[in-house]
């Protein structure tokens, strides 16, 4: 999967109009300078050769060097990855935290006003573009109410270098016990992760509701009720656990969507993560960095799929590996 | 010693309806019967005649949007339908239990056998120490003839007959008085069914159970039940002892049902069938629901619904034929 994705990106980048040299030198540089620069970067070779060169290096886990800046591709990626992970983690947590309980709630009160309300919420938030949702939240909670910051990971007054070690600010601040900085980091996380969480929660509401309705109709639910098992236990322990199996599947499939949403959220909130890095470097046509980011994203999705498959075995005793 | 009441369960004029978009389905209409302590009552009828709805309503578990539109269900004198939710939870499993049609799907696929048992015990007697609960489960398995190592297994690892036995065990673990068996053998093969019947009969004497057996299998009901109630289109057509029903069926519907059972002693070329199909429960015709299919129909059948009238000490029928003869 990583391989296919990368090949695709490699070709598309080079077919796309514009290249790193014109991005760097602008449109009015003398032809000779442009040719010289292209030769330096190896861009004068046929695409096939460039591809083989790149893949050869990648086989040694070398993502190459940036074409614009004097830095290894891995450097900005490692710098930005923790920010993206923190954002996606909380975004996912929130979307599940909203989606699953709301879905169960709707399924238990099928066809009531509250059920329709929950379904309307699900459809509406699913349709809202992430960036627009972000802008709205920024406007209301950031500007009008002034409750939360609308950009960045920390306030300017917070000295990042004082605690930054792994790049995961939450971990770092907690590790050295700097709770003021921890609070500041969390405070900055609120709007971006809420944006991502709300937009993605819609699909989980619908999914949970549909699966719960299905499961609650099954014979073992009726049988449990007939044994005098209380309703709460029937719904959550017998019902939800069974309904979770397809939800977990969907979680794996939705992960790519989550990352895409994270890219948009990052650019809306000036979140210094991989998404912003990707956008920045696309403008600069920094081929190796773009490819590197794609490699990381694809790996991420693949790993999550694997984890989901392993999760099945933990949830469902019928699945064995 | 307190005096044992003879009647343990009494259903009085029970009606249950399902409101749907095109009207109201009257699944159960004015049904009354009693169940004596230690008695086995067979509830017989075609698919869709309301017998399962009736069975579930005794635990107040009839599926939504079903609603009781009238009548009472008295368990030892207390109306189940007006019990509090808490009392209902206690009653289910501890006083009245149910076993279901499909043992393959009636166990939670994610729970071990043991967890099913311990959960049931826990919610009825939270104070029981785990060790005692485990001992009780072990004893139950012995009665059911299931090896102890099966406790740690999941439903998909067990055979159909074994799952059915587990279902019975779960229904009996809290030692209830009444067990409602809803088509308990439909999904089992004949050999397993025979084993099941034996098991149910022996458990019945061990646990001093009263049984309501819901089925369309006349052979099964003849084997187990002391009395039989024949249901058609949500109404009781005839109630009598098992011998009476098979020897002198009064209602033409009962006669038809019995005639439909193939007999291996007689050389039959074709199966006997009853012409027609049960009426639409949304648009009930006036009069006896069986009138359109009845071979002995008389004019009054199409005008007025006959009531269930006692014709002999242990034999009642809802049919105009006998009403008329007696005057």
Report on the structure:
The complex is a heterodimer of chains A (321) and B (327). With 321 residues, chain A is mainly alpha-helical. Helix content of chain A is 75%, strand content 0%. The longest helix of chain A has 38 residues, at 179-216. By secondary structure, chain B is of the alpha/beta class. Chain B has helices at 51-57, 85-94, 113-124, 130-144, 160-172, 190-207, 218-224, 242-247, 252-260, 320-325; strands at 7-20, 23-36, 40-44, 67-75, 78-79, 96-99, 178-182, 210-215, 227-232, 235-241, 309-312, 315-317. Chain B is globular and about 65 Å long. At the A-B interface, helix 10 and helix 11 of A face helix 2, helix 3 and helix 5 of B.
Number of DSSP-assigned strands of chain A: 0
Q: Please count the beta strands of chain B (DSSP E, at least 2 residues each).
A: 12
Q: What are the low-pLDDT stretches of chain B, counting only 5+ consecutive residues below 50?
A: none
Give me the Rg of chain B, rounded: 21 Å
Largest sheet of chain B: 8 strands, mixed
* Percent in strands of chain A: under 5%
What integer is the average pLDDT of chain B? 88
The helical percent of chain B reads 25-40%
Structure in a nutshell:
The complex is a heterodimer of chains A (321) and B (327). Chain A is mainly α.
């Amino acid at each position: 999967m990583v391989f296919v994705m990368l090949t695709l990106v490699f070709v598309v980048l080079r077919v796309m109009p514009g290249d790193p040299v014109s991005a760097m030198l602008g449109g009015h540089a003398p032809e000779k300078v442009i040719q010289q620069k292209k030769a330096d970067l190896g861009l004068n070779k046929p695409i096939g050769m460039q591809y083989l060169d790149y893949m050869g290096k990648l086989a040694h886990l070398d993502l190459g060097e940036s074409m614009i800046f004097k830095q290894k591709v891995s450097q900005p990626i490692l710098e930005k990855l923790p920010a993206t992970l923190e954002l996606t983690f909380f975004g996912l947590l929130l979307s599940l935290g909203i989606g699953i309980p709301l879905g169960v709630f709707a399924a238990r009160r099928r066809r009531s006003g509250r059920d329709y309300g929950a379904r309307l919420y699900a459809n509406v938030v699913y349709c809202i573009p992430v960036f627009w949702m972000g802008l709205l939240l920024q406007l209301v909670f950031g500007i009008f109410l002034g409750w939360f910051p609308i950009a960045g990971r920390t306030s300017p007054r917070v000295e990042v270098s004082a605690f930054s070690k792994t790049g995961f600010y939450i971990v770092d601040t907690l590790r050295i016990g700097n709770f003021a900085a921890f609070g500041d980091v969390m405070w900055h996380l609120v709007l971006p992760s809420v944006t991502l969480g709300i937009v993605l929660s819609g699909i989980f509401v619908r999914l949970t509701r549909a699966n719960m309705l299905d499961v609650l109709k099954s014979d073992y639910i009726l049988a449990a009720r007939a044994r005098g098992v209380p309703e709460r236990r029937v719904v959550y322990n017998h019902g939800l656990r069974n309904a979770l199996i397809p939800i977990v599947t969907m979680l794996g499939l939705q992960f790519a969507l989550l990352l895409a949403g994270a890219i948009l959220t990052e650019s809306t909130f000036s979140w210094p993560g991989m998404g912003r890095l990707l956008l920045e470097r696309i403008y600069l046509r920094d081929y190796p960095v773009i490819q590197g980011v794609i490699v990381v994203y694809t790996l991420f999705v693949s790993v999550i799929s694997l984890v989901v498959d392993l999760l099945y075995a933990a949830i469902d005793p019928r699945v064995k590996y | 010693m307190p005096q044992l009441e003879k009647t343990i369960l009494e259903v009085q004029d029970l009606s249950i309806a399902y409101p749907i978009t095109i009207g109201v389905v009257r699944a159960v209409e004015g049904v009354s019967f009693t169940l004596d302590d230690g008695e086995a009552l067979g509830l017989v009828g075609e698919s869709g005649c309301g017998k399962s709805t009736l069975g579930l309503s005794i635990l107040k578990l009839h599926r939504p949007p079903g609603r009781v539109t009238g009548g009472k269900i008295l368990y030892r004198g207390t109306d189940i339908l007006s019990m509090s939710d808490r009392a209902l939870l206690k009653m289910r499993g501890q006083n009245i239990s149910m076993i279901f049609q499909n043992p393959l799907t009636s166990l939670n696929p994610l729970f071990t056998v043991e967890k099913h048992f311990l959960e049931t015990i826990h919610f009825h007697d939270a104070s029981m120490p785990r060790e005692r609960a485990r001992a009780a489960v072990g004893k139950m398995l012995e009665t059911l003839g299931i090896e102890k190592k099966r406790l740690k297994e999941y439903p998909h690892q067990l055979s159909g007959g074994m799952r059915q036995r587990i279902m019975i065990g779960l229904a009996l673990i809290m030692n209830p008085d009444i067990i409602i068996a809803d088509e308990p053998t439909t999904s089992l093969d004949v050999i397993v069914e025979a084993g099941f019947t034996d098991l149910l009969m022996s458990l019945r004497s061990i646990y001093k159970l009263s049984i309501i057996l819901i089925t369309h299998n006349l052979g099964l009901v003849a084997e187990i039940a002391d009395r039989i109630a024949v249901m058609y289109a949500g109404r009781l057509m005839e109630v009598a002892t098992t011998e009476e029903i098979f020897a002198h069926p009064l209602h033409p519907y009962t006669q038809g049902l019995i005639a439909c059972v193939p007999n291996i002693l007689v050389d039959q070329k074709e199966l006997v069938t009853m012409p027609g199909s049960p009426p639409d429960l949304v648009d009930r015709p006036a009069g006896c629901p069986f009138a359109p299919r009845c071979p002995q129909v008389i004019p009054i059948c199409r005008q007025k619904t006959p009531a269930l009238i006692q014709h002999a000490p242990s034999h009642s029928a809802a049919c105009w034929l006998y009403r008329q003869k007696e005057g």
